[in-house]
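User: Just a sanity check before I run the rest of the batch. Below are the structure tokens for the first item. I only need the designed sequence back.
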């Protein structure tokens, strides 16, 4: 009888070890799939891991991350809720759950999770993430404090400079925003967003040639963004470069025919150069796309 019991125990241990090997191999496969952008395959492997080891906190965190990459943010939060029950002192649980809540526009809840992560561990990514949720909650000055903290931890943190610039634009500090965008560009000249946003800040300061230079750079690197052409059209129109402005607005419309703004901008230029029929046609189209001020002008001047 004793021998039978020992044999059963041995078989149980062998099966446990075998199961652990399967889980470990699945975990490594999942990591590779995720690294290569094969998120569905990675999710399948993490499912296998957690079927064998449902209390594996890192497995839950990693699966949640993959779910978020697949836009299943609710599923990610469920995994991270379970991870929190198993380990309340792991900051990555709160950081990743905060990111999932941010994507669902649950900004207050996201901030609460980032607070918990930061209390456990101060990390530049945690401050950046909390700053982003605060910025989206229109807490711009608080967001700037978080971005500044992130920069103090990494003076070459491009995303922190870029997002701090965005927050500064929101409070009307256009010179400060330009400084941050310039710093981001100096660190990584291939990152496109700072060019277009610095151009917008230059427009607000009526530095239209500087704005056009930034939009030119952006368009060379990404010629398929209608916003860049629309914004360059605004700068050209303010410099009375009417032909260039019309070309820019026309290109913006070609890239995104459902955006009312370039129709409205082009209508203004056509009005200035005496093309009343063309101006009314553009105003009508902008009105049809839902721009109320275009409708008002169209009804008062074209009918």
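Assistant: Here's the designed sequence for the first item:
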């Amino acid at each position: 009888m004793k021998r039978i019991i020992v044999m059963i125990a041995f078989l149980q241990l062998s099966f446990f070890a075998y199961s652990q090997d399967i889980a470990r191999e699945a975990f490594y496969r999942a990591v590779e799939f995720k690294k290569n952008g094969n998120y569905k395959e990675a999710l399948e492997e993490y499912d296998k891991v957690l079927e064998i080891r449902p209390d594996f906190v890192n497995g839950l965190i990693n699966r949640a991350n993959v779910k978020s990459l697949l836009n299943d943010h609710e599923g990610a939060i469920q995994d991270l809720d379970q991870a929190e029950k198993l380990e309340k002192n792991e900051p990555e649980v709160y950081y990743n759950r905060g990111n999932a809540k941010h994507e669902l526009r649950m900004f207050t809840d996201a901030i609460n999770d980032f607070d918990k992560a930061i209390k456990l561990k101060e990390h530049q990514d945690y401050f950046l993430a909390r700053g982003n949720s605060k910025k989206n909650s229109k807490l711009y000055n608080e967001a700037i404090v978080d971005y500044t903290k992130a920069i103090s931890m990494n003076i070459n943190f491009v995303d922190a400079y870029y997002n701090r610039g965005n927050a500064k634009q929101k409070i009307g500090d256009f010179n400060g925003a330009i400084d941050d965008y310039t710093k981001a560009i100096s660190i990584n000249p291939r990152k496109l967003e700072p060019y277009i946003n610095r151009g917008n800040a230059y427009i607000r300061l009526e530095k239209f040639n500087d704005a056009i230079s930034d939009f030119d750079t952006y368009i060379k690197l990404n010629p398929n963004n209608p916003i860049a052409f629309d914004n360059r059209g605004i700068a050209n129109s303010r410099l009375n470069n009417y032909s260039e402005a019309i070309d820019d607005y026309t290109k913006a419309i070609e890239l995104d025919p459902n955006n009312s703004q370039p129709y409205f901008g082009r209508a203004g230029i056509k009005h200035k150069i005496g093309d009343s029929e063309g101006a009314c046609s553009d105003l009508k189209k902008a009105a049809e796309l839902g721009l109320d001020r275009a409708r008002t002008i169209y009804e008062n001047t074209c009918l």
